[in-house]
What we know:
The protein is of the alpha/beta class. It has helices at about 15-20, 25-35, 50, 70-85, 90-95, 110-120, 170-185, 205, 255, 275-285, 290-300, 305-310; strands spanning about 5-10, 35-40, 60-65, 70, 85-90, 135, 140, 145-150, 160-165.
Amino acid sequence: MAKPKLAVYWAASCGGCDIAILDIEDKILAVADFFDLCFWPCVADFKYADVEAMEDKSITLTLFNGAIRSEENYHVAQLLRQKSVVLCAFGSCAADGCIPALANFYNLDSILDYVYLRSPSLENGSKIIPQPVTKVPEGQLTIPKLWNTVRTLGQTVDVDYIIPGCPPQSDQIAAVVEAVIDILKNGKPLPPKGTVLGATDKTCCDECPRVRNVKKIKEFKRIWELDQVDPDLCLMEQGIVCCGPATRSGCGAKCVKAGVSCRGCYGKPVNVRDQGAKMVASLASVIDSTDPKEIEKIVSTISDPLGTFYRFSLADSMLRRVQA
């Protein structure tokens, strides 16, 4: 009997999700034993033509990491949707846009202008900006055309499941892989479409072991601005912006336990439409003032509020991008 086929793809992302898969340690052997790895260009020399030649729905499971920000990303997303029985948005970039979607604070022309003409580390005497099509003596060179707006995988093709995180935690990946193998091996029903795998319905705060009291904030600070951080007290109560109240649980609050505030990479919790708006509401409830001028002064101590509140979810938010 032929093995189920597994595909893994890396679109607009850093590659951390691919590393996280390998980080499930010896369980990767069970994956290799159970699945026929048919496409994973990050680790082996697979070609798009190999996938294009497959029959539709011949890939059992595709783990797609990365946002969609180029014609190439979009083409492969459509291709893998066509060829896959189950398509999973794997990681924050595919699910919410993540760091690549911070490009939505700008337009494409301004990004190209800075990267190729104004960056202080640049040496580009000819002022060349790469073009999608370039004619050379030998013929025509093409590179994928970048989009003006970065999108999530679910905004471009139909997605069956989501595994959140930047990257998803290896223990959660291992648990999901074991569950998938059990389902396929024993003919069990799949979870309802749209299920978020490797996470719960609670928030990161519910996983956090730090002590929480009444929060009264007069000033927000970064960790390095404090002389000492209480290892047991809620970071927010110490004036450190922590996105735990606006973030889905599932990571085990590893960052907070290590003394680093939650950055929000597991995405918005259940019944929350916009992670950034939820975070604004959470901070509004702890600011200790009713005086508009003092409130404005306290809020001004938050460094880069837009980038902080929407670091991982701008593409999936109600804003989606800065309007021209």
